[in-house]
């Protein structure tokens, strides 16, 4: 390829890259225009003669401030602007004070005092940067403090009008910072709080998509479309982004549905729980390997409760994500949480009936492991729901009540036909209860004994068959007695 063709190819690749970057997020183009606008405004210090006569070369600090302060989000701009302004003010005041203190020691003692003060303050400020909280929120301000104090003290040793120099530098920095803040807030603002809110909701949605896709992939459910099984990986590495956005969101004023003291810390807790769920999903994903030998009989036995746990957990996460996007209480996820917990109990019953006689241990382990991981994921999803509910209370999200009354809601379909065990309910110790009621009229509880009888008959025969007692089923050990206290 000749040089002309090579140059043309590179130009086309650059053009395509620019177009793709702009289409991926059009706000990047707007941000670039905002930076250009802010720089044009502060450049008037040089373009306008009266302003240049007032500030002189110190006007260059306004231009430098715009370049280093203007960030993509409003919170980032406010954070850097306020850090730079406060640090400049404090360092300038200390620099002027240090200069006056050094003068009192005479010509020979002045450089020694200035050097000692510079060493102490620079070393102390640098050490403060190692504190996690200072590092997260005020690191830029500490750096500017060291820089400004050093410039003021060193310049003051050679410049007589040190107070005028500090005043000009402070004013130009404040003007540059104020210009950045005004442009960032008024012209197509990008709020860090909104970005954090959307990021956490999106991460929860990705977890829901995986669980839905896992059900279709592992159980070969052809009726359901396979969702992306790779989206959860981005959740694993979202900690840095969430913490950065959380720190920046605290600097922002109230905007839209986000109040001034919005509970941003709760978003970080919710994000941490989402990552905990993602790590368990990563472990679960390793078992989507067709080469792993499994006991198909045991897999079929666990299929129904595992499907329910996966499906209901996915629906719960989707409901939580949807409620966050609409800023409403996640009450719709409660029923899915309860259904998954019920399936967990059924899974435990199935685990207790495992027999190692007809299957090899190496073939049983993968099935049992998947069931156990799904159980842990179900518990984590419940934690996510609790955290989302706490967030909705702290942030005063709207409460949306269901349009369907509880009486009209259909019962959840937990097991396929033929696998539901018939139940016989008896009132235990009626005579004793009657005697107790005669002795204590204030008793508001009754005790019910439930006999869970596992039958191998078909559902039609079971429905027409007379109920059996626990004594009739004692030999088969299929009777589970549960004492339930029912409050009136």
Automatic annotation (TrEMBL):
Biological process, per Gene Ontology: malate transport; monoatomic ion transmembrane transport
Cited Pfam families: ALMT
Main location: membrane
Ranges that cross the membrane: 29-48, 54-74, 86-106, 112-131, 138-158, 170-192
Entry keywords, A to Z: Ion channel, Ion transport, Membrane, Transmembrane, Transmembrane helix, Transport
One cellular-component annotation, GO: membrane
Membrane topology annotation: Multi-pass membrane protein
Family note: Belongs to the aromatic acid exporter (TC 2.A.85) family.
PANTHER family found in the cross-reference section: ALUMINUM-ACTIVATED MALATE TRANSPORTER 10
Name of the protein: Aluminum-activated malate transporter
